Amino acid sequence: MDLEQILRQTRSVAIVGASPNPDRASHEIWTYLKAAADYDLFLVNPTVSDIEGTPVYPSLADLPVVPDLVDVFRRREHLPEVLQDTIAVGAKVLWLQLGLWDEQVARDGEAAGLQVVMDRCIKVDHARLLR
């Protein structure tokens, strides 16, 4: 898997587990991507309606577009559900942030045609490969 190719081909990113708390990694990644990347960004969290004036969607199914990449900030036990939602909406890439690793989710995602990236920070890889 070529991370640079994934990042270059991506046009839209859904951030699952987006947080309004600026101290949370999901908020930091969203802030970075808004400033440094030319992606259409969509925030997903069923418990928040907006973050700094940006709408937050309750689920991937509620997004107005099919995201190319789903960037996940959820606990490991939620990954199978996020995978199923990612497959259902037709995204191409499931990106599990630093600290998230699940071999079964990876196998199931790849069997469904997804590219699966695990235990990597999209901010770090974007800055390293595309800036």
TrEMBL record:
SUPFAM superfamilies: NAD(P)-binding Rossmann-fold domains. Pfam families: CoA_binding_2 (PF13380). Residues 6-100 form the CoA-binding domain. Signal peptide: none annotated. It comes from the Bacteria. InterPro entries: CoA-bd, NAD(P)-bd_dom_sf. This is CoA-binding protein.
